[in-house]
Amino acid sequence: MHPIVRAAYPADRTAVAQARRFVRETLIGWGADDAIDDAVLLTSELATNAVIHARTPFEVVCRAACASVQIEVVDGDATHVLPAPGAGDDPDRVSGRGLLMPVMLAAEWGVSYAAGTKTVWFRLRTRAVPPPSETPAYALPRIPGVEHSLVRRPRDETYDGGLYDVFEAAPDRWRFALGGACGTGPEAAAVTGLARHGLRLLAAEGHGVADVVTRLNHAVVREGVHGRLMTLVHGELVRRRDAGVRVTLVSAGHPAPLRLSSSGEVTSVTAVQLSLGAVRDTRFEEHTVDLDPGDALLCVTEGSADGVVQGNGDTEPGPGAGTRADGLARLLAGRTDLSAETAAEHLSYAGDLAVLLLRVL
């Protein structure tokens, strides 16, 4: 697996310069110096299009392969109308030339649409060869006053449609998401990509947690093939005035997150609702929990919570002997020093494993 990094921006002209800087710094870190100039120029053009024509928040995604880098600009315009240069366009203009720039400079480029989003991407050849990454697909940002870690252990090299993300939705408001599409292959990847871009764009537009999940459900129903479901836990963290953090979250078909108190008590913090894609008109409800200093929130992917490994190596059965959350809660009760890595060590799993832990400092 090769590096993938992303950043979200508001629909503001000043964000174009930030996007250029993000791409430049990313490619410098990858050693892809020979692709920097063209990548920055193309990113500037596509980001400007997103701000001026789409007029929505946008996201920039950088992907590295062995001999190329791919840059994607995702916005909220799905009208299938692309900006085009006017007659007699000045070739010395620095922007406003529609998609002429990727046509002239990129080795490959394209446009794809999903419900409510448009992605314009381009690929540039490079002599750089980034090493395989052992880290999560996304570099987790720093959240003031909250320590957080993500552990992902794939079953194999086959992409399974997993979603893992932590990002700043607005000043002092942080979002997290964990989940995945059922199945494997391109169809699962398409559903996960739709959810990932949708989460960030809807959050940037100011939609609440429950509204984001409800809108994503509509999109998955519209875009997914029959029977394609997705589990998701999505939440927002906001610092409380006194101390600690208030978490607002929704669990859509995903095992309920667990609150681990500083005293070792383990409790489930939300009810599990329908998976995304199950019923179009589902209205998801959000739940709120306050975390005090020393408390932690633990989220575990669907596949890994079916059974938990006991101290003697036996595996406790899943739904047939009580809820999966109950089994995990019993296993972790009394642990006050838990990390995502140590939690993962106690779990048995048949598929992809992902554990996200957020602890209030």
Automatic annotation (TrEMBL):
Transmembrane portions of the chain: none
The keyword Hydrolase belongs to this UniProt entry's keyword annotation: yes
SMART domains according to UniProt: PP2C_SIG (SM00331)
Annotated PPM-type phosphatase domain residues: 146-360
Upper taxonomic lineage: Bacteria, Bacillati, Actinomycetota, Actinomycetes, Streptosporangiales
Single GO MF descriptor: phosphatase activity
Name of the protein: PPM-type phosphatase domain-containing protein
UniProtKB keywords: Hydrolase
InterPro entries noted in UniProt: Bact_Sigma-Reg (IPR052016), HATPase_C_sf (IPR036890), HATPase_dom (IPR003594), PPM-type-like_dom_sf (IPR036457), PPM-type_phosphatase-like_dom (IPR001932)
Gene source species: Actinoallomurus iriomotensis
